[in-house]
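Cross-posting from the modeling subforum.

Setting up a comparison between two proteins and wanted a second pair of eyes on the formatting. Protein 1 (sequence, then structure tokens):
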Amino acid sequence: MLSFGEELTGNDLKKWADWSIGFFYWSPSVSQVYAELKKLENLGLVNSRTVAEAGARGRRLYAITDTGTEALRDWSRDAKVEMPVLKHGVMLRLWMGHLLAPERLKMIVKDHIANLEHNASEARRHAEHSNDEPAWAFSRMSLRWADRHFQAEIRLAEQLLEDIDEASRWFRDESETGENGRVRPRHPGRWREADESDNGTA
């Protein structure tokens, strides 16, 4: 964010992260921001100065250095392109759907859709807020992507509402459970076959 040419406090960076990269990467805590700024300053990648304000505690402003700009450019250009890490709490709960009633699963998905609709709206609003700042051209592009990403996730979640019915019918008609309600797998250890296939040992 300092590469956009402004001097900013740690709190400024936190606020900016919340309405920008927080939609598609990560929004750090204030303490994490200041810890990273200290590390970057020790490495000579950013510098700081304190600005005195009448009747208030001085603010420490951070700016990126030429060395920091070059390091950031090198990373952005040369870093290996890897698959994004997906940690989807809703899908984890659906994966264990045999523990819950279908209607409860649907309520979880509907709550998820509501969250996605809110995030899509916020990403779209912040993208529009960027319209009069050409320095934010790629930031606006990324926020528009975030909006489309959330919209796509909404469509996938809406499909899940039908998928839950199908999975529930199959589970109800074909699976076996013990007296304590625990599932009795038809093919115990079946997951090992997938693992062996992945390793070429099947």
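Protein 2 (same layout):
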Amino acid sequence: MCIFASVMLQKYVGIVLHTVKYNDKANIVHVYTEQSGRMSFLIPAQRSRKSAVKQVLFQPLSVVEFEADMRPRSGIHPIKEAKAWYVFTSLPYDPYKSAIAMFLAEFLYRALKEETTNIPLFAYLVHSVQWLDVCETSFANFHLVFLMRLSRFLGLYPNVEEYSSSDYFDLLNACFVSSQPYHGMFVRPEEASHIRTLMRMNYETMHLFAMNRMERNRCLDIINEYYRLHLPDFPELKSLPVLQELF
């Protein structure tokens, strides 16, 4: 019996994307794991000091290490033990960082569907979460840079070769073009330049690129529209207006 149980239990490290009520006793938590991509697990709904699985561990973008009972022919697996793989220093306590985390967790929950191992993507997500947590100032452009760089891992990074300042950005075909596309899904040259600027940013240099709130929110609208065009069934995000109010 003990041998059988040890075979069923597997250890994972993952990033929390979304939690939803399952019944009165359990919640379903969706996690992007290092080992197997996106997976779904059960955690206790009620808080208990004696529980080996604390609800507080499963906040948006938390990085957790846990052991789950991998039952055959089940898509939702009970978590038996869990602990923080990375302990936050500021992200849950800073309202601006928390708003970014809520938005990005919802975005990733909708965008990441594959149940396969993707070590480079997982490493990028963990690095990004840690960077945001320890950053002290000048992170207003973080979510924009995160989403642009995420597109590389999803095979959606736009073609930026031969860009000219007079080019339109064709959202449908993911490239800059010299003439206005016949379809209506494009960005005019004066705004397309902001997209090109975002592609040059990284976390260390993004503070050097000044944007006001209107420009930043317009860029976010464009990026969101771009993903909605290229990801099947990508919905409107509830946390988007909240983030745009803050940044």
